[in-house]
Specification:
By secondary structure, this protein is an alpha+beta fold. Helices cover 19% and strands 27% of the residues. It has a six-stranded antiparallel β-sheet with strand order 1-4-5-6-2-3. Strand 2 and strand 3 form a beta hairpin. The relative contact order is 0.22.
Length: 182
């Protein structure tokens, strides 16, 4: 059996993991609704440049708690390090990427798509929203990723807050559906 460190496709051509599709979504897409309050907060704070990360305290996350990742660009935006990886994504996917580069994800095509989306958000200085469909560890997932560019400190680097909406935020995640952390 192939593991995550091996090729995305097996010799018989069966797809074992990686990107299926990536589509940019508008703010009014139904999948984005749970994060609208965060997009509105971003809009309210962005008048004179990127809002500070401290303008988004965890108590404002509401049902998004555990769905937020914080990424820092490295290599002039050619890659990103997860300073904090979404706890729910870590449980659902079976891997916690906190402290790791996006490029270190097991599926190169999926990692490349995330890097490109992160770079697009950072360069534009505006929120971006993508729906990514992918196979991870032989399971198919669909995830809406809302990216908010923020500044770490007034004189600090630009970073990204990424909200992962892959499970119903109005329902407590069912732990039986999750793969345990490795």
């Amino acid at each position: 059996m192939l593991d995550d460190d091996q090729l995305v496709s097996s010799l018989d051509g069966t797809r074992r993991g990686g990107l299926i599709s990536s589509v940019e979504l508008p703010r009014d897409a139904p999948a984005v609704r749970p994060s609208l309050h965060m997009l509105e907060l971003w809009d309210n704070w962005s008048g004179s440049g990127l809002p500070l990360r401290s303008y988004f305290p965890p108590e404002n996350f509401g049902k998004l708690m555990g769905r937020v990742s914080l990424l820092e660009p490295v290599k002039d935006g050619a890659d990103f390090i997860y300073r904090l990886y979404s706890g729910i994504a870590a449980n659902k996917g079976g891997m916690d990427f906190t402290g790791m580069h996006v490029s270190e994800m097991p599926y190169p095509d999926y990692a490349a798509a995330l890097i490109q989306q992160n770079r697009q958000c950072l360069v534009s200085g505006r929120p971006t929203i993508h729906e990514n469909r992918f196979i991870w560890r032989n399971r198919t997932y669909g995830i809406c990723c809302v990216r908010l560019p923020v500044r770490d400190k007034p004189d600090g680097p630009d970073m990204l807050m990424v909200i992962d909406l892959h499970a119903n935020p109005n329902k407590r995640p069912d732990t039986s559906d999750y793969i345990p952390n490795l």
